[in-house]
């Protein structure tokens, strides 16, 4: 009977130790869950801050880009106007030179004709 009692006691002790270990593991798991939740809350807050920061900078970048685009468009339009004016001036100068050349040629023809007759 002593052997039987000792086995029962051993089983009871082993069961109690197993339950204690299981409780300890459950407490560790609960602690890890709590730490994980706190960490995830912290990460989420950081991500939200970063998202706000990035949105703010993106909006500022868009505004700068829009202003730069407007300035470039205006600069291009001014360059096109300047080029058109320069081309017009060159055309007028060429036309004037052609008129002088034609007049000189006509005068030379007139002179040559008078010399012949």
Describe this structure in words.
By secondary structure, the chain is mostly helical. The chain has 1 helix and no strands.
Give keywords.
117 residues, 1 helix, 0% strand, rod-shaped
Strand and helix map with partners:
Elements: H1 2-116
Give the uncertain stretches in residue-range form.
none
Average of per-residue pLDDT values: 94
Shape verdict: rod-shaped
Number of H/I helices: 1
Order of helices and strands: H
How many beta-strand elements? 0
Question: Over the alpha carbons, how many angstroms does the gyration radius reach?
Answer: 49 Å
**First-residue to last-residue Cα separation:** 164 Å
Q: What is the percent of helical residues?
A: over 70%
Structural class: mainly alpha
**Beta-strand content bin:** under 5%
Largest beta sheet, briefly? none
How is this structure best summarized?
This protein has 117 residues and is mainly alpha-helical.
């Amino acid at each position: 009977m002593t052997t039987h009692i000792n086995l029962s006691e051993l089983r009871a002790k082993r069961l109690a130790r197993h339950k204690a270990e299981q409780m300890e593991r459950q407490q560790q798991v609960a602690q890890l869950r709590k730490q994980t939740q706190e960490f995830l809350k912290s990460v989420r807050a950081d991500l939200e801050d970063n998202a706000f920061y990035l949105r703010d900078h993106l909006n500022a970048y868009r505004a700068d880009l829009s202003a730069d685009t407007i300035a470039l468009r205006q600069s291009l339009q001014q360059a096109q106007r300047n080029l058109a004016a320069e081309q017009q001036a060159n055309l007028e100068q060429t036309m004037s030179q052609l008129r002088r050349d034609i007049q000189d040629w006509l005068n030379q023809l007139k002179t040559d004709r008078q010399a012949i007759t």
